[in-house]
TrEMBL record:
Residue ranges, compositional bias (Low complexity): 11-23
Species in which this protein is naturally found: Arabidopsis suecica
Involved pathway(s): Protein modification; protein ubiquitination
GO BP terms, alphabetized: ubiquitin-dependent protein catabolic process
Protein name: Cullin repeat-like-containing domain superfamily
Keywords: Isopeptide bond, Ubl conjugation, Ubl conjugation pathway
InterPro entries: Cullin, Cullin-like_AB, Cullin_homology, Cullin_N, Cullin_neddylation_domain
Polar residues: bias regions: 1-10
Cross-referenced Pfam families: Cullin, Cullin_AB, Cullin_Nedd8
Amino acid sequence: MSLPTKRSTFSAASASDDSSYSSPPMKKAKNDLHHSPQHPNTADKVGFPMEEDPTPAAANLSRKKATLPQPTKKLVIKLNKAKPTLPTNFEETTWEKLQSAIRAIFLKKPFSFDLESLYQAVDNLCLHKLEGKLYDQIEKECEEHISAALQSLVGQNTDLTVFLSLVEKCWQDFCDQMLMIRSIALTLDRKYVIQNPNVRSLWEMGLQLFRKHLSLAPEVEQRTVKGLLSMIEKERLAEAVNRTLLSHLLKMFTALGIYMDSFEKPFLEGTSEFYAAEGMKYMQQSDVPEYLKHVEGRLHEENERCILYIDAVTRKPLIATVERQLLERHILVVLDKGFTTLMDGRRTEDLQRMQTLFSRVNALESLRQALSSYVRKTGQKIVMDEEKDKDMVQSLLDFKASLDVIWEESFNKNESFGNTIKDSFEHLINLRQNRPAELIAKFLDEKLRAGNKGTSEEELESTLEKVLVLFRFIQGKDVFEAFYKKDLAKRLLLGKSASIDAEKSMISKLKTECGSQFTNKLEGMFKDIELSKEINESFKQSSQARTKLPSGIEMSVHVLTTGYWPTYPPMDVKLPHELNVYQDIFKEFYLSKYSGRRLMWQNSLGHCVLKADFSRGKKELAVSLFQAVVLMLFNDAMKLSFEDIKDSTSIEDKELRRTLQSLACGKVRVLQKNPKGRDVEDGDEFEFNDDFAAPLYRIKVNAIQMKETVEENTSTTERVFQDRQYQIDAAIVRIMKTRKVLSHTLLITELFQQVTFILLDDFKILK
């Protein structure tokens, strides 16, 4: 084979004498006489002739003349102008060679040509502009074999799993064969395909042919999809399947570009039907915690399925389908069937699972509403049960604590859920307008009163903090203030406070919550107690005390500022002579020190310690002032009637009956009543119990008058309402001064904004 060449002119050098080329010119030597082994005599005078022996120099000169360079000769080569031609049947011969190799590849037979020669054959065809025809021939050859391979799958009456294996083998063979053909015809991809944008690469051409003939054999495609769906359903039913087979076939669908239409659509439809049926079944058969665990497991399985063999593009719609069928459709049923149970059981882990799953389907609002309903219903049972008023506050504290744990551990401290708990608690704690506020004050009184054994300062402080949370929810804080002030007064005056530091800590907390105006009177009560201690010390050092006080009696006086302390009804009593003397001496001392003031003795708040002699030994009795007055009557008589005691003491009838009941009918019976009974009647007689015995030396006689009566509660509540009337009047005056003219509706609206304690029951006050 001759190849066309270009005409050119060039010169070349040759050492041959009979050549037509001339030798290149030789350069003239500049240092011919340099020192060398052939010239030992010229070592000292290099480049100069020596006079002693001129003969060698002459010989060197003659040798230079003999080797002078000759002029260069140029050679011109004239090439044949005729165009080269391809060998006969070059194209046919080359294609036959390639065709036989391609057929051998498809038939999985060996071929007689090495890959290098096949690659060179394709390269030669491309070199002579025959690549387009070669591409078409390769495409035609591939189409025949691909069509035959797919047609061989038609009519296969085998098991679906076996059929899928045949399809996988067909696809794997196709991939291997196309890769081999592409490696042989790589020149086509690199030159012809790149230069022609509308021409597919050999690999894409093969995929297009496979896709075309697969569509022409719908039975194969349909059975393949059916087999895939069947295998996936089996796996969902906990049967073992060949995941590698599934992965390969689904990758085939993706590579062919038919994944979305041929597989994903029926797959999602089947998934929806499967989980719709499963959701209904499990919802009826299992409880809510188990159902939620099942849903969580299913979501994990489907996510893992997407990782292992299902295309990543299907993950989002697949998970959404599962969530819709297993969760979204059953939100209300799950909440109605199991939310209350989970909350009552404090099952934080299950509630956290519910919150996580509900967040996936944007159902947190439904969960929040269920939480609100639960808090209100459960709290209403606590607040409205009048028989358990004694335990109401502790029950509310326990309930709030459990809700806080659930909010932190299950709802991840979600702000919306936290606000829901607060709003619901505020609603339920004000269902009974004033009673919860009163009971919270009583609860604090119980905790701050002396006698709480086993309670450390840290535990007491923690309890105060928790109660303060309930206090924040109360709308009628003025009711709380009234009862708290009344109980605080008793603790301070009777010396029943467990810790002054704890008392002041609570006052400080209330001041932080409601401002100094709220605690001004409470702080004033502490100032009075401190000042009273100083006054008593000063009184003991005074001349009046040293010279005029009767012996055998010690008395401590609390001087109270009227505006700070609760209002106490005056109660007259005929005191023993010794106590009257003591009161007069102290009054004289106090008025001499603080002129212009008026003292009023509150006998109902006094308490005493009496020394009593019984036949079995001496005792000390801790009693109220009224009890002391009654007992001291028995110093002069062993038996007295009810009328005699009443005339001698002038104590109000009801108060006297309670006092005698505590002395003769209680646990500590210092007096004996005749006839016996729980109530004191007009004709009863009382006798000193000389045989009284008790293991302790100092005995506390419970004074019934110290316990709060219904009348006192009513009186306190009425005072609160009266104060509210004044606050409402003041608020109306402020509003009308600012607005001048205002409609009734707008006036009520602004009044609600300024006065926080107004509830529905208070509208009669507004009118």
